[in-house]
Amino acid sequence: MAFKIIASQCSACGACEFECPNAAIRMKADTYIIDAAKCTECDGEQPRCVDVCPVENTCVKF
Amino acid sequence: MITLDDLMRTAKRGGAKPVVSSAPANGCASSSCGSDQGPADLAPGVWEKVKDHPCYSEEAHHYFARMHLAVAPACNIQCNYCNRKYDCANESRPGVVSERLTPEQGARKTFAVAQSVPQLTVLGIAGPGDALYDWRRTKATFELVVKALPDIKLCISTNGLALPDHVDEIVNMNIDHVTITINMVDPAIGAKIYPWIFYRHKRYAGLEAAKILHERQMLGLEMLTARNVLVKVNSVLIPGVNDEHLIEVNRQVKARGAFLHNIMPLISDPAHGTFYGLNGQRGPTPQELKTVQDACEGGAKLMRHCRQCRADAVGMLGEDRGQEFTLDLLPEKIEIDFTQRDAYRDEVEKKRSAHQAAKSKAAKSKASEVLAPAADERTLKVAVATKGDGVINQHFGHAKEFQIYEVDGSGVRFSGHRKIDDHYCQGGLGEDSALSGIIKILDGVDALLCAKIGGCPKADLTAAGIIPSDDYAFEFIEPSVAAFFARLIAVARERA
Q: Which of B124, B165, B343, B369 could form a disulfide with B155 if both were Cys (CB 3.0 to 4.6 A apart)?
């Protein structure tokens, strides 16, 4: 269970990488990807990556 | 439109009035956005800081260039007028870039520009997101650049939310110009502009979000001015949302020490995919913009020459040379020739002193004797075609924008600029459709001064009620406007 980033919609701003408490997000080519193994979905709290993302419906639950 | 007969109507004004005075009645006095022509009305340290910054000093914008590096894509708020996924190389508005850069690439680009553009004095990081929220990248870029270009001024633009956390570092890096975009000081109005903010790892919306943003902006502004950092405040004028409110914004930012207030028109178009664009929120007309700017006179000093440039803009204000410096065009190794940069600075000082001398001469000259007794209520609006150096040196056909000056019994003042969509002369031939477009944009203007103008546009402008003249080609702007005005009055008097 994790979040994932829809690459075609991602504006590659990097805010998600900055905010992730588990360092689960990194840049790959022109977009960012989430390492499912490290993602804890922010332990049930509001997921930070989703909250900071400027493009609607781009960081979504698997 | 003013006729010569209108000019003859004199109103009785008590006593003699100084003419091309250095204290403006309204509008920013020519060459005095934020600062008058000299150290006279500014603390000495402040004049030194602003005199070469094209955004902070209207006078400087005729000589110097700035560049923005798009190295800060992450942002911590969402504004209804922004869509950072939208990009077009022809589009010029804040938040838009064609190419995002890493700090290393940004530094290389800066060196390339510094080498080709000796007028470059300022490096700003304005986006495409928020320069302070994305501080890692902003800081890395600045550190790389100052190592090789110690004489460049560093400048930052931010929404202010993250500002209080970075004031110390800003001061330590000698960043002495910061712009904060403050569109409201009333959270109820803020809720109509900002759908959400991201603060301390959480998203906030509505009134609560606007309240936090407002408090952080005010705090950041106070902290900066307490440390002697020059703060310009940018406000986006959104008709029906904050147009009447901006007077209050002006008052409050002045009270907290803001150096300059730049009120800019909202840019809104459904094609941009912004919330405002898609929901029919329009931008202001030039008259609406001017009304709000004029209402703010007497409060925080106004900037009227903002070109609303892209977050990757390069060059003198109004001209964007960004396409010459895309990544693929940059040389691998760049050697900066400081002698060229210093030589340009010396040239500018000479031109500046000449300009100042001409202005003070005009103040004492015959033109002033003629203007003083006129004491006419009417103000003449004069469009000027210039490509820099404070002189009328642009052909009508080549002008992409006109600088608007106002002149009346109390002097000459810079009032703003008007961009035109299509310049008249295209490939050596005049375009009639472009001309009618230009005349429409010049609505309300009484006269036009340029270096050269052809018979056809001359006739059409005259027919539209705009008096064209190339009699002052290559002369300094303000004395020419004053002399032109004086000449009109003299002619009108002879007739009467």
A: B124
